[in-house]
Amino acid sequence: MNTDLDARLADVSYNDQGLVPVIVQQWDTLEVLMMAWADEEALRRTLTTGRATYWSRSRQQYWRKGDTSGHVQHVRGARLDCDGDTVLLLVDQIGVACHTGTRTCFDGRDLDPVVAAAQDRAVADDAGKATA
Hints:
The protein is of the alpha+beta class and about 130 residues long. The chain is built from three helices and six strands, in the order αββαββββα. A hairpin with a 6-residue loop joins strand 5 and strand 6. The longest helix has 14 residues, at about 120-130.
């Protein structure tokens, strides 16, 4: 009986499809690698086996990262956000994370946002200090 794990899983807020987004990050460099979906069972497998397991919405089945590609994700930590509706999974990525063959799923598709000016950032920093 794993009541501590059950209690932690009960804190997760799943969407209408019973899924929670999982943001996957390299544990030591903090590089964002990918985003995937997990249901309660996938999250349970991830937390109890040390290997990242997700729910494939397209295939309607579980997939443990690296079983077919060899690009394994070894779990180093897991956190729930303040609302309980997003998981941050810290992993040690072996090989590439993206199915396209790139290190991360966030390579090469910059949306070219307007970058805030230094004075705007200073004002925001001062406002943050006032509320802290």
